[in-house]
């Protein structure tokens, strides 16, 4: 089975080609004020197409979540299993935009309809809790309520009517019954990769009803096994979404969407059963919605992080649940969760030296997209103000996973043995071939003709980063 398939830029463009955005390009005809049968038929066709397109975009993060979970369960295990990426994540492991210098501790989605859940989090880790729609509810570690000391979290649905004991960090989940914790252990903090794996394996969860004699969670070490988080981008995506809402409750924001989808064979509690007319509409809607999601992802309509740099925010939503007082952040959710996994409550840590600071780079200093045929230089100043480390990972646009080249290198980091300049700064190069005069340690190979992007990470950012007096330099194209 092919785990990862790279789609060329040309093929990707062809894959998301679609019919004109509106088929309702005629003047409606009325007889005595009544629409003619032809007008009504065309109007309903357009309505159903638009409804399916909007639903697909609204629910995009659910596809991401299911891809993440199905990828884990293909490896083995069940709901109770705790999965660890116990080696540096490999280029053949299609986790979306990971950090290959941490140990990820992950679970499939846990069902709160069975009762409240106790999650035991060890000290010195960092993580987040989100639901099937990627809404975030709490952070773990130094930016969470346990303040890096670890502890027991009690996670429960707001529909739960039983008594809740004291002595836990309480987390109420409103919009979903399915939740997943994503936790990271740090080899640099624990002393070695093996020590971080052993530390991460102490994470456990169980239902509150089992608290007197908690069962053990099976531990699955992923190692270098192939993994894929990818989800379908065609009519099959609607089949996945039907699965999502047959497993989970429908949040209030989704009721209108599911009401509109009923005439297309999509109804909660029923098998997904579109007829031929519905299949044609859904196929067209999926194609359009994918183009919309990719546009929201890679051409986000947001301000840049800095006034004199090309970087944009990692998260473009304001609310971790995508819900503000007067609207839902649909565009930010669809655009962000095309290439992100998990969601944070705390995007920028309030306390220097805790958490992480992330930005995204899709473009070079000239405002052109980063393309693998070109050679780019990034100068990292000396003495980056962090308490942990900085990292520049590279991801393929087509897969959003770590770049897969003959070099088999996916990131450059302060933990690497990099050649430095006389002033302590570091020049990093990103090119299809090693540039002349550049040490191999400072070069990361790219793929000619293919777009790439990066999420530069600063772990334990200090005050100059948080107040933006310290800034990443732009990627400069070497001409």
Structure, described:
The chain starts with 8 loop residues before the first helix and ends with a strand. It is 23% helix and 20% strand. The chain has 10 helices and 26 strands. It has helices at residues 9-15, 37-58, 60-75, 187-190, 193-200, 236-247, 255-261, 276-298, 330-336, 463-466; strands at residues 30-31, 34-35, 82-84, 93-94, 103-106, 110-111, 117-121, 126-131, 136-140, 151-157, 169-173, 178-185, 204-207, 219-221, 227-228, 312-313, 356-360, 376-380, 390-393, 395-396, 411-413, 426-431, 443-445, 452-453, 457-459, 476-477. A hairpin with a 2-residue loop joins strand 1 (30-31) and strand 2 (34-35). Mean pLDDT is 94; it is low at 1-21. Strands 3, 5, 6, 8, 9, 12 and 14 form a 7-stranded mixed beta sheet that branches. A 5-stranded antiparallel beta sheet has the order 16-17-25-19-21, with no helix packed on it. A 4-stranded mixed beta sheet has the order 11-10-7-13, with no helix packed on it.
């Amino acid at each position: 089975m092919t785990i990862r398939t790279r789609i060329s830029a040309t093929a990707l463009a062809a894959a998301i080609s679609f019919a004109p955005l509106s088929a309702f390009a005629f003047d409606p005809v009325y007889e005595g004020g009544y629409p003619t049968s032809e007008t009504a038929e065309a109007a309903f066709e357009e309505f159903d197409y638009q409804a399916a397109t909007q639903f697909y975009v609204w629910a995009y993060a659910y596809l991401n979540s299911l891809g993440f979970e199905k990828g884990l369960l293909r490896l083995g295990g069940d709901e109770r299993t705790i999965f660890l990426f116990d080696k540096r994540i490999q280029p053949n492991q299609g986790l979306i935009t990971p950090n290959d210098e941490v140990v990820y501790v992950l679970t499939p989605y846990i069902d709160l309809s069975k009762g409240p859940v106790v999650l035991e989090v060890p000290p010195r880790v960092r993580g987040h809790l989100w639901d099937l729609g990627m809404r975030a509810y709490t952070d773990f570690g130094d930016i969470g309520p346990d303040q890096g000391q670890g502890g027991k979290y009690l996670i429960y649905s707001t529909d739960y009517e039983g008594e809740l004991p004291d002595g836990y960090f309480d987390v109420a989940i409103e919009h979903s019954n399915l939740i997943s914790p994503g936790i990271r252990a740090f080899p640099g903090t624990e002393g070695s990769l093996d020590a971080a794996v052993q530390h991460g394996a102490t994470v456990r969860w169980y239902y509150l009803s089992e608290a007197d004699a908690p069962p053990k969670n099976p531990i699955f070490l992923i190692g270098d096994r192939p993994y894929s988080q990818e989800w379908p981008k065609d009519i099959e995506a609607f089949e996945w979404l039907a699965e999502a809402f047959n497993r989970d409750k429908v949040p209030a924001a989704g009721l209108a969407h599911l009401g509109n989808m009923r005439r297309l064979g999509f109804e909660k509690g029923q098998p997904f059963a579109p007829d031929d007319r519905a299949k044609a509409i859904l196929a067209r809607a999926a194609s359009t919605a994918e183009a919309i999601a990719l546009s929201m992802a890679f051409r986000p309509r947001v301000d840049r992080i800095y006034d004199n740099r090309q970087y944009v925010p990692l998260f473009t939503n304001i609310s971790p649940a995508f819900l503000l007082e007067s609207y839902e952040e649909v565009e930010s959710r669809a655009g962000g969760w095309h290439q992100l996994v998990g969601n944070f409550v705390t995007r920028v840590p309030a306390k220097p030296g805790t958490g992480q600071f992330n930005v995204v780079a899709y473009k070079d200093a000239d405002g052109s997209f980063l393309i693998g045929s070109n050679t780019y230089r990034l100068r990292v100043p000396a003495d980056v103000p962090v308490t942990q480390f900085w990292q520049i990972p590279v991801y393929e646009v087509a897969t959003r996973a770590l770049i897969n080249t003959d070099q088999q290198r996916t990131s450059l980091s302060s933990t690497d043995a990099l050649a430095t300049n006389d002033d302590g700064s570091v020049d990093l190069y990103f090119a299809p071939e090693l540039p002349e005069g550049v040490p191999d340690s400072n070069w990361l190979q790219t793929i000619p003709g293919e777009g790439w992007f990066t999420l530069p990470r600063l772990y334990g950012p200090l005050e100059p980063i948080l107040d933006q007096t310290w800034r990443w330099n732009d990627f400069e194209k070497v001409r």
